[in-house]
Amino acid sequence: MDDDALLRRSLAFNLENAGYQVSAASSAEDALAMLRAHTPDLILLDIGLPGMDGLEALRAFQAVAHTPIIFLTARRRELDQIFGLELGADDYVTKPFDLDVLLARIKAVLRRVERAKTPADKSRVITVGDLTIDPNAHTVTLAGKPIDLPRREFDLLYALALDAGNVISADDLVTRVWGAEYEGEPQVVYVHIRWLREKIEADPRHPKRLVSVYGVGYKLQAPEE
Question: Strand, coil or helix: what is 130?
């Protein structure tokens, strides 16, 4: 969605020519109503919207559906990336953008979502100590209490849980959770590890569940009594 009518029409036209079915909205409020009626495979979301802005809209969308979201932004990339990563956005494209770049990002995000759905070993409930992760229900409980995680944090936690007790490098986590197109950007892992610790650790500064192995990577384990 975008409040620039010309850009919105042009983008919809080009996406339809690329084989996608497109529904366009000029405001987050209109898009939210559309999302409640029909869940799309992906949302393109401008940050600078009238009324509810893109960052507020992302929170509202996530409360309705776990649909992947790509931000379109003309703002300073670094600032918006920090906010977007915290909220769980899947990717960013800055305006003005090349259509081929946008199409490549769309395909990459949809591939990641599809890969996450298909492997059989990525659909089982995993318990690590008193932490339980159910990928089908997209729920996490800690000592029986629900923990609300944005989709990217959930995916990272589940990737670690699949290899609980084993150390996984940041580069490997990037590939497993974000995809090969994010290779060379381990900072996304560092940021999400910090946010996960704030939610699952009694003392995030001294983690007992999600621990670092210096120079190697991270592992998820049951805390020692």
Answer: coil
Quickly tell me which residue has 């339980």 as its tokens.
132
Place of tokens 């919809």: 12
Tens of pLDDT along 171-199? Answer: 889 888 887 667 777 888 898 999 999 99
Write the pLDDT tens digit of every residue in 36-56.
888 888 888 887 777 777 677
What is the fold, at CATH topology level, of the domain defined by 5-117? Rossmann fold (3.40.50)
Asked whether the whole model's pTM tops 0.70, one would answer: no
Sheet holding 131-134, edge to edge: 126-128, 131-134, 139-142, 145-147
CB 138 within 8 A of CB 154: yes
The CATH classification of domain 120-220, taken from the options 1.20.58.2190, 3.40.190.10, 1.10.10.10, 3.40.50.300: 1.10.10.10
Distance of CA 59 to the CA centre of its chain: 12
Rounded to an integer, what distance in angstroms lies between the CA atom of residue 106 and that of residue 44? 9
